[in-house]
Design a protein that fits this description.
This protein is of the alpha+beta class. It has 2 helices and 9 strands; from the N terminus they run H-E-E-E-E-E-E-E-E-E-H. The protein has one domain. Strands 1-2-3-4-5-6-7-8-9 form a 9-stranded antiparallel β-sheet. It is globular and about 45 Å long. The chain starts with a helix and ends in a 7-residue tail after the last helix.
Length: 152
Amino acid sequence: MGTPTIIASIALLGCLAQSNNAVALVSDGDRAPLVRRELVGPGFGPVAGGEIILMREVRRTADGYVVKVKAADGTLRMRGTYADEGLTVANGLFSYYHDNGRLESQGMIVNGTKSGTWARYGREGQALNEKIYDGKNYDQRTAEHGWNAPVN
């Protein structure tokens, strides 16, 4: 681990130690119990050697498990809802943020697949082309079009 990574890890661990683990308000007004906090890498998964480290907070709500990922400086990087505590099935509104805190993209994920219109924004907040998803995953599209899956 390089020095910046170690410093970020220490800062995030300090935040973990100082924060209230009992309950917190979420945007829908319900009090959501904290399930866990953990360090993750830039892809929001487990940390690999030398990666930038972020903190993921998981809270249980009536709609599922709300996840927020923040940088060491507290900047929100991702917010979304999962159907399960293991965070394997994304299901709900997801928002991703640039490292400067501005919204990067936002849209719905239904049962793990992007669906509907996703808004996208540049680093300075300018609107970019929207992307429209049909709610089908790769396997469904492959079968629908008769494509052959790539051979590894």
